[in-house]
Amino acid sequence: MAALDPRIAAVTDRIVERSKVRRRHYLDLIEAEAERGIDRPRLSCGNFAHGFAAAGEDKAAIRTMRGPNIGIVTAFNDMLSAHQPYGRYPEQMKIFAREVGATAQVAGGTPAMCDGVTQGQTGMELSLQSRDVIALSTAVALSHGMFEGVAMLGICDKIVPGLLIGALRFGHLPALLVPAGPMPSGLANKEKQRVRQLYAEGKVGKDELLAAEAASYHGAGTCTFYGTANSNQMMMELMGLHIPGSAFVNPGTPLRQALTRAAVHRVAALAAAKQRPLGLVVDERAIVNAAVGLLATGGSTNHAIHIPAIARAAGIVIDWQDLDALSAAVPLIARVYPNGSGDVNDFHHAGGMAFTTRTLLEAGLLHGDILAAGADDFEDFATNPRLEGDDIVWDAVGESRNPDMLRPVGDPFLADGGMRLVTGNLGRAIFKTSAVAPERWTIEAPCRVFSDQDQVLLAFKAGELDRDVIVVVRFQGPRANGMPELHKLTPPLGVLQDKGFKVALVTDGRMSGASGKVPAAIHCCPEALVGGPLARVRDGDIVRLSAHDGRIEVVGVDLDQREPTPPPLPSWGTGRELFAFMRHGADNAELGGSAMLAAMEAEQPVADETVPAPVPA
């Protein structure tokens, strides 16, 4: 393992310094929880009896505390393909726990909404806010004090960050995430995208579109493109929160079950020994590893919101300046759809996480000394699991089996990680360059301003956007409408670009990990609703967006001299009105867009006011 690259060290040191008081406050909290928090020995007899009343054959073991009891927090539902496999996991995990003298109970469940189902629908306005709900549900589940370890069953977009944020408030307990893997490959993603674009142009009908979508999303497991869900799995490996090599093994296979068994055995061992609690595992180095992996593999831009939120739950402050600096140091070594032609199954076959971890370690781009929960040594994550009889054997990874998809650091696809911070008189935003041709990294054109994505689609269908244009979609931030993804815009904007027009998107909303070839400045903050500069942009303003020089600006206009456009009235229906308190309390995207974390920090501010606060709105 090589010495740490000085650029990675510098960013890590900056995060440590910025976080030192908040991190100390967090570590004091979990130390106090370990010493005098709620746990089984402290429960009254009535409390305790309630906790094991229905434990079946585990009742005697839990009652007499013969071994550690693992709390399972599950995001199972059988509508969401990625989470459908979890239905049988708890019963299996109870058996696996008994094998090593431990017990397991389902502590609680969390919601798990599918962005694929809600994409472009009103339900998408609950998506980001569901992360707070999941974190709160996790905290409720673990609040019973019945557990010495935690196993989290979740994979997809807001679910993994939510589970982790909630569990970090119980950071005195050891914990692992237990994945279920991606579905086998179906219709090629490029073909699916081609049919979507044809539908946007009116060249195929709904039947053809549905047939293509159903052939792509066809079974149990995560969607196979490299979006937020699969980026989650990559990050958890590089933070040491999986059993090594478990991210991308398909559901329903013997190896998948063996990895789940290994996860239960590992949590039980850590719990029995009171080792590697989650709050110590998730430190500044682990957060940097997650960010490095995201950049090296061209992962989802949603994690520019989730990484700061996860970090805050552990008393760590990371911002987009840090991500930008890391991006300059970390090369792009993977091209997985939508950044390439192959999917995550192809990525896994090419060498996957083992190859990625090894080449990044050899180049000094990862912290190899993190306190991994899933293995004794972080270098174990540079190996691939296979079954030998009933036992897992981890083999050293060889060279990439597909250099068109996965390459060593010394021969990257791009010299940087492809996630740029752009700033200017329109605020701060993220520009994901890894899927965009370099000749499109700078766009200057008149803008057309919209307040929702349906207005954009109407203008597209009417031919009003058949020109060089920067599409501005505002009032899409966390406080406006929950910050939905605007992935519905990708096909029409792609059509315009293919016609030869210079096209870009600027928005205070989100684009998913499936965002593709169209230049986009997303997550603009401060958002339009709170008086951000997007509220002062007018149709016809010349907007310049450049990843080359990190700028996003209206040219030749003093925006401060304009009155902001009033926001649209909040929309009710689909339960959105129930989440009004979350919208009203949410902070900006760079901080994570969370009402829950904002309120938590306001209730117990850090004592040392000389410590820099997170980036202001």
UniProtKB/TrEMBL annotation:
GO terms for cellular component: cytosol. Belongs to the IlvD/Edd family. Binds 1 [4Fe-4S] cluster. Its cofactor is [4Fe-4S] cluster. Catalyzes the dehydration of 6-phospho-D-gluconate to 2-dehydro-3-deoxy-6-phospho-D-gluconate. [4Fe-4S] cluster binds at C156, C223. Pathway: Carbohydrate metabolism; Entner-Doudoroff pathway. Residues 405-592 form the Dihydroxy-acid/6-phosphogluconate dehydratase C-terminal domain. InterPro entries: 6-phosphgluc_deHydtase, Dihydro-acid_dehy_C, DiOHA_6PGluconate_deHydtase_CS, ILV_EDD_C, ILV_EDD_N, IlvD/EDD_N. Keywords: 4Fe-4S, Carbohydrate metabolism, Gluconate utilization, Iron, Iron-sulfur, Lyase, Metal-binding. It comes from Sphingomonas rhizophila. This is Phosphogluconate dehydratase. Residues 68-373 form the Dihydroxy-acid/6-phosphogluconate dehydratase N-terminal domain. It catalyses: 6-phospho-D-gluconate = 2-dehydro-3-deoxy-6-phospho-D-gluconate + H2O. Its EC number is 4.2.1.12. GO terms for molecular function: 4 iron, 4 sulfur cluster binding; metal ion binding; phosphogluconate dehydratase activity. Pfam families: ILV_EDD_C, ILVD_EDD_N. It is an enzyme of class 4 (lyase). GO terms for biological process: D-gluconate metabolic process; Entner-Doudoroff pathway through 6-phosphogluconate.
